[in-house]
Amino acid sequence: MIEHMSNFPDHVVAFVCKGHVTKADYDSVFVPAVLKALEKKRKIRLYYETAADFSGIDPAAMWEDFKVGMEHLTRWERVAVVTDVEWIKQTMRLFSFLMPGGMRSFSTSEAAQARAWIIAAS
User: Fold this and answer.
1) CATH assignment at residue 17
2) Of 2, 14, 32, 68, which sits 20 to 30 A from 39 (CA to CA)?
3) Sign (positive/negative) of CA torsion 91, 89, 31, 60?
4) Mind spelling out the 3-state secondary structure of the chain?
């Protein structure tokens, strides 16, 4: 399940992933929120957190994540990923060179720092 977090400024789209994440979660929560933010702002920031009960993500959901990221590549100002899931950190490192804006990973114990970084002035 993906939950849209609303306690962020309007130039930040924020999500927390809980349990098992599916393509339907991306189609119904993630993609609409990102597209709505992109309608309002030229550049946006993404805060993405995995909850303690995160158990995985479907391959179709990962593909959807990649597609959205690439389709709007020049519009990502910053991306903060908060996770203790090692394969997510490694995947982020692998693709970080594609991101024109800042991209950082944080452990779950650093969530407050990640939130401060994602909303901080450039």
Assistant:
1) 3.30.750.24
2) 2
3) positive
4) CEEEECCCCCCEEEEEECCEECHHHHHHHHHHHHHHHHHHCCCEEEEEEECCCCCEECHHHHHHHHHHHHHCHHHEEEEEEECCCHHHHHHHHHHHHHCCCEEEEECHHHHHHHHHHHHCCC
The model's pTM is: 0.92
Residue given tokens 């309007």 in the structure block: 10
Residue 85's domain comprises 2-119
**pLDDT tens digits for range 3-54:** 999 899 999 999 999 999 999 999 999 999 999 999 999 999 999 999 999 9
Number of structural domains found in the chain? 1
